[in-house]
Every structure is written in C-alpha cells, then in structure tokens.
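_Backbone structure tokens_
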Amino acid sequence: MILFINACVREESRTEVLAKALLSKLGDYEEVKLEDIDFPKTDEAFLKKRDSLIAAGTFDDSMFTLALQFAKAETIVIAAPYWDLSFPAVLKQYIEHINVLGITFEYTPEGIPKGLCKASKLYYVMTAGGTYVPEEFGFGYIKSLAENFYGINDIELIKATGLDIYGADEKSILKEAVDRL
C-alpha cells in the first residue's frame, strides 16, 4: 500500500501538484489529508492513557490508527511545503502520533531505536518560494526519523525551489521538477 501524507493546505498547492505527479507514476494510494484531522491535545491525560496502552501492548484504541497505518505502508509519500524554515506544524503533530513504541519502532536492549515499519521507500516532496532551503530544517528531520526510528533507509527528496523569486517562471520550474520524476 502506498501512503500519501498530505500536509498541503492551499487549494492550489504547488507541493501537492508535484506530489500528485509522483503518485501518478507510483499507482493507487491511500491519502491522509492532515488538515482534516482534529489532533487531540497532547496533555498529561492523553500521555497517561497512551503510555498505559503502550505498556499493556494494547493498540486497538483509535489513538493508534495513524501509527498502524504508517507502519504497514509499503511506500510513503510525504508532501509538505517549506514554510518558515521547516514544514507545516500539522506534520509535526502527525509525527507525534505515529511515533509509537511497539508499532513504528522499538528499542534494542542497548537503548537504540529499531524500526518496525514495512516501507522500503519514503519520498519527501516539497516546494519553496525561495532558494534558501537547508535540508536539515525540514527534509533532514524526516530523513533522520525514517532511518533511525522507522527502519526506512531509501529516502528521496523531490523538490522545486525558487518559485516566488521575482521574474521566476513558476510553471517552468514545476514542469522541470515533474520531468525529473
């Protein structure tokens, strides 16, 4: 199963255009549109319930639905525009809900995380208005989680940058990115 994690919120999102071009080459997919999820507040009561269920190995509660879905995906596509030197906050909320001990990762006796996810490939799709796009602020974070926690070692960045620079040909830049797929 291909899982499409869509962190785009604009109606005519350039990131989503690029992601959908990729998905058209990959095949059928299941979409998680992050703006449509009403994430619960991560307060003490939430954490106590979550920790208790994890300790008991009881993962049938709805709070684990996203983590279970993520863990069973064979290919993952994350679409997240580059905003304010990172990605939209809703993607961080999603990550907090899929990082579940016993579902997406476990710890070795030495305390090292070991991935439990089925995916062999993760694509990170992003666009940016400017050209200052240090990878460590957005993509690097996701790449590190994928490799070090989820056990996904084939991570690919697909991007189109410089879209909002005065005089830039936005359509041409996007077309070039799509053609590179």
User: Anything to note?
Assistant: The longest strand covers residues 121-127. Strands lie at 2-6, 29-33, 75-79, 105-107, 113-115, 121-127, 154-160.
